[in-house]
Design goal:
This protein is of the alpha+beta class. The protein is built from 7 helices and 11 strands. The protein folds into 2 domains: 172 residues, Beta Barrel (Porin); 121 residues, 2-Layer Sandwich (60s Ribosomal Protein L30, Chain: A). Strand 4 and strand 5 form a beta hairpin.
């Protein structure tokens, strides 16, 4: 039977539609007309149909069923009837019609009860397209057996089939298909989604909001603008952390003692230094000079000795000594007098062993009054020395 299955391969080379599908068969032997106690037998099959041209098709099929009517002698048990056939269909209409009546004939080989024989089928059928590339095929054929060892019979079939696209037709469609437009390639060397023409850092993967540049420390500043690109920082410090020179956890912009380890409750200054600073500020008001001169009064010596002890206790403490006057003289005289008075203070402290690098003397003259100069009391307040504390590292 293999030649009947391989024969249609040649037909498949034709550029015509081909369909394949299963079918249900009903066997009606001519012996039924003589013996009313016999009934039609059921079977199933598989068929392949290939178009040859606009009016002709070739068809192969293989069918199987069980019957007790195949032999000329009555049997009490059913046996397998196996068939393979090659047919040619002639259609009444062109192949583009949905309804197709046809006639069919060909040759077949059948096997029944250890007997093999040929048969000649002849019949009619219709093919109806019920959906795109889906068909219902109904046929009725009469099979004449040779050399007559199997009874002749009618084979009535109902089948469903689907279209197989021909290889040549598919290739032709692919060749005729219009090529898709090719988009120009966009260069993006660092593969960050920003084209090289717009990427300020084309060789480093970056972020679109920074024009393709990275922000390694994730502080909101691109590395190109970040002075500390590997450390999270503040924009106000160009991407660097807020400085904390004394490492007390209090940033310098909030630390009153930037160079001395301190406590947050004392604004970054040591707890034991706050009272000392207040004492120094109060002591400054007790420093007195002879009228119109830069000579210290005796009462000021005790105050300055107290300052010496404090400076020795805190070796990193520095003092800025500012001299101030009222406006009773000329500005040039007042400025010179304020400088001499502030130097008189630093000279005394230096004479007691305080390093001069920890001291600085400046004169403000009458430029920074703290009270009015129109009264005796106000002018007395303006004639003063101020001591400002700072710290060395």
């Amino acid at each position: 039977m293999s030649y009947l299955i391989l024969l249609p391969i040649y037909c498949c080379g034709q550029n015509q539609p081909s369909i394949i599908g299963p079918r249900y068969n009903l066997y009606q032997f001519t012996a039924l007309f003589k013996d009313q106690n016999r009934h039609p037998d059921n079977g199933i099959g598989l068929f392949f149909l290939q178009g040859l041209n606009k009016k002709l098709d070739c068809q192969v099929g293989i069918d199987a069923g069980f019957t007790d009517s195949g032999s000329k002698f009555k049997s009490n048990s059913k046996s397998l009837l196996l068939q393979s056939e090659f047919l040619v269909r002639a259609r009444a209409l062109r192949n583009n019609k949905s309804f197709q009546p046809y006639i069919v004939s060909g040759a077949g080989l059948q096997f029944y009860k250890n007997r093999v024989g040929l048969y000649w089928p002849l019949g009619l059928g219709i093919q109806q397209r019920i959906a795109k590339e889906i068909y219902v095929i109904v046929s009725s054929r009469y099979h004449v057996s040779f050399p007559g060892s199997i009874n002749n019979y009618f084979l009535h079939s109902v089948g469903f089939a689907g279209t197989l696209r021909p290889i040549k037709a598919r290739q032709k469609k692919e060749l005729n298909a219009k090529p898709l437009p090719v988009k120009p390639a966009i260069s993006d060397r660092d593969m960050d989604g920003v084209s090289d023409s717009l990427d300020l850092c084309p060789d480093e993967p970056g972020m679109q909001i920074f024009a393709g540049c990275p922000d390694t420390d994730k502080d909101g500043l691109p590395d190109t603008q970040d002075k500390c690109p590997l450390v999270f920082g503040e924009k106000s410090y160009s991407g660097c952390p807020v400085p904390d020179q004394d490492s007390d956890g209090i940033p310098d912009d909030k630390d009153s003692c930037k160079l001395l380890f301190g406590a947050i409750e004392n604004k970054g200054c040591p707890i034991d230094s706050i009272d000392v600073i207040n004492k120094i500020r109060a002591a400054a008001h007790s420093i007195q000079f002879e009228s119109g001169k830069a000579i210290l009064q005796d009462s000021s010596i005790e105050v300055l000795d107290t300052l010496v002890r404090i400076l020795n206790q805190f070796p990193k403490m520095c003092l800025l000594v500012e001299g101030h006057t009222d406006n009773t003289s000329t500005k040039s005289f007042n400025t010179a007098l304020s400088i001499e008075r502030s130097k008189a203070v630093t000279d005394y402290l230096t004479s007691k062993g305080i390093n001069s690098t920890r001291l600085k003397a400046i004169g403000r003259g009458d430029s920074k009054p703290v009270a009015t100069n129109t009264t005796i009391e106000g002018r007395a307040k303006n004639r003063r020395v101020e001591l400002i504390v700072d710290w060395n590292d």
